[in-house]
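sry for the spam today, last one i promise. struct tokens for design, 284 residues
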């Protein structure tokens, strides 16, 4: 199976004494849904921004990131194919990045900007087919009734769902979500995770989602990659992430990763991980 994401020897420093990632290597196959967990400051957001081509890695000879078999950056340099590859990647941030003064529909239509002439996008000249596709995307995330509302009128959960609809309109094959539920209440968080799971299972979209609470990884993602201090300390089936095991991996930091009282999803059992393996660095 083709790799949707392949990372080799990835390091990233912010200044001489701040190394955020240390020689990270892993693969994600097309169609997987993978959680990225870790305490605050573990390097999750940095890793996702590097995969998206939004920032550059350290200039090391072995460093390379590929998306669907094509290099997006190597040795700290963004490749010539990066723009085309970014059109295949939908990125959903913790901050929703909607334009508050625009309608929800227009915010979703913005997902087309990378595939149409810039002058048309600047003038908001979207075709009927694009508008139909945007409405269909809003239907997928349960937001049709809010299509003509201004972005500023939406709740946090609604804004996040609109951001996911924008990625659908973009035609994303890889959806990267950087703590998309961190600022949401439990009900809204479940709705967002249900949508991501549905897109993965029904549409075959590869999903990589960073999460602050491991319960969501257990309930939605067959595989989890765990970071600690910029290194991978576990890469394997999510079901292995018991509270005791996380205590071994993270020590006192493991308390950050559990959200008491989160019920399990009985209607969507976790699938068996197909290529997750335990990482050798399993000492606390």
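last one done:
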């Amino acid at each position: 199976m083709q790799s949707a994401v392949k990372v080799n020897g990835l390091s990233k420093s912010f200044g001489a004494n701040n190394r955020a990632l240390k020689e990270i290597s892993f693969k994600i196959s097309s169609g997987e849904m993978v959680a990225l967990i870790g305490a605050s400051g573990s390097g999750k957001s940095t890793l996702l921004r590097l995969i998206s081509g939004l920032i550059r890695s350290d200039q090391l000879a072995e460093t390379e990131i590929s998306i669907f078999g094509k290099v997006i950056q190597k040795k700290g340099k963004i490749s010539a194919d990066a723009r085309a590859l970014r059109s295949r990647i939908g990125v959903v941030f913790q901050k929703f990045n909607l334009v508050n003064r625009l309608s929800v529909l227009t915010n979703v239509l913005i997902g087309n900007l990378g595939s149409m002439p810039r002058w048309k996008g600047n003038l908001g000249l979207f075709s009927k087919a694009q508008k139909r596709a945007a409405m269909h995307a809003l239907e997928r995330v349960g937001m049709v009734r809010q299509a003509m509302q201004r972005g500023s009128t939406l709740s946090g959960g609604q804004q996040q769902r609109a951001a996911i609809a924008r990625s659908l309109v973009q035609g994303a094959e890889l959806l990267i979500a950087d703590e998309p539920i961190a600022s949401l209440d439990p009900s809204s968080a479940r709705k967002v995770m249900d949508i991501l799971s549905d897109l993965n299972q029904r549409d075959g979209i590869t999903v990589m989602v960073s999460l602050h609470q491991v319960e969501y990884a257990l309930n939605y993602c067959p595989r989890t990659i765990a970071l600690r201090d910029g290194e991978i300390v576990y890469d394997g089936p999510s079901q292995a992430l018991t509270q005791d095991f996380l205590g071994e991996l993270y020590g006192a930091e493991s308390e950050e990763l559990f959200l008491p009282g989160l019920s399990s999803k009985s209607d969507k059992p976790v699938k068996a991980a197909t290529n997750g393996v335990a990482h050798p660095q399993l000492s606390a």
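The longest helix spans residues 186-203. ok im logging off now
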